[in-house]
Specification:
mainly alpha, 285 residues
Length: 285
């Protein structure tokens, strides 16, 4: 029995060794099939970070914020160039100035008076009148109207209207310039532009300044001043409240009624003048 038991144990041991050999052979074949690589450990990272040496601190990861601090700043947008004072004042400049109600916009409108474009000058002058910008009187008075006849209506009108709302030195400058224009146009005789005198007459009336009354009254007796122009003179005197002109107005009316023109067109103009005189005399009491 003992011998049989030993035989059985020997056979079991040999079987176990055989099974182990087969398992080892199978594992070797699997390793060779994978190219000899060692299977990775389950859950182990693919790459280990190197441990810091003893006494040495681990280097922190480079910060994006730190990189942003040391990075060169982004180039800023170029500043718009300052307007060139010598550049011509254009229609676009005029539109921007008219749309700007500030003192800067008013200053730009005054700059526009120096434009070579009569339209720009006219619109700039009208804009300044609308703003009651009496500070523009000096610039208006300085314009050479002989050299720039196209701007006469706007400039003369501006002087009259702004002179009417100004006071002190500004008002004096406007009236002085208009009176000088009146004398200059009268001195030209037949070469004068008739419409320029009409603008000056009306502008003097708008100033409201008593200094304009006497020169305008003198125009009533001038035979070179036609009936249509004298209507403008009479209306200017009435606007001024020039009571001192009543005598000259009455005398002119008497001449017109006593000796009407034989020309039908001229006679019609004279009737308009008489009507204007009557209205003026009614208001100048």
């Amino acid at each position: 029995d003992v011998l049989q038991l030993r035989g059985l144990l020997s056979m079991a041991a040999r079987a176990t060794l055989a099974i182990g050999a087969v398992a080892v052979a199978g594992l070797a074949a699997l390793i060779l099939a994978r190219g000899g690589s060692r299977p990775a450990r389950t859950g182990a990272p693919g790459r280990r970070a190197a441990a810091p040496r003893q006494g040495q601190q681990a280097r922190p990861a480079r910060s994006v914020t730190r990189l942003a601090l040391v990075a060169p700043p982004a180039p800023s947008a170029p500043r718009p160039a300052a307007p060139d004072a010598a550049a011509p004042f254009t229609i676009d400049d005029l539109k921007l100035a008219l749309a700007d109600p500030s003192d800067d916009g008013t200053a730009r409108l005054i700059d526009g008076l120096a434009s070579e474009d009569a339209v720009v000058v006219g619109e700039a002058a009208d804009g300044l009148v609308a703003r009651r910008a009496t500070g523009a009187i000096a610039a208006l008075a300085a314009i050479d109207l002989d050299a720039r006849p196209g701007v006469i209506p706007a400039v003369v009108d501006g002087l009259g209207k702004l002179g009417g709302v100004a006071d002190g030195a500004d008002r004096d400058a406007a009236v002085t310039r208009l009176l000088a224009l009146l004398r200059a146009e009268k001195a030209k005789g037949p070469a004068a532009i008739p419409s320029t005198l009409l603008y000056v007459y009306e502008a003097l009336g708008r100033t409201g300044d008593p200094r304009a009354a006497a020169p305008l009254t003198d125009e009533l007796a001038d035979a070179q001043v036609g009936a249509a122009a004298k209507v403008v003179v009479v209306e200017a005197l009435a606007r001024l409240g020039a009571t001192g002109s009543r005598g000259a107005l009455a005398a002119l009316r008497g001449r017109l009624v006593g000796a009407p023109s034989a020309d039908a067109f001229e006679a019609e103009l004279q009737r308009d003048l008489v009507a204007a005189i009557d209205q003026a005399l009614s208001s100048l009491r």
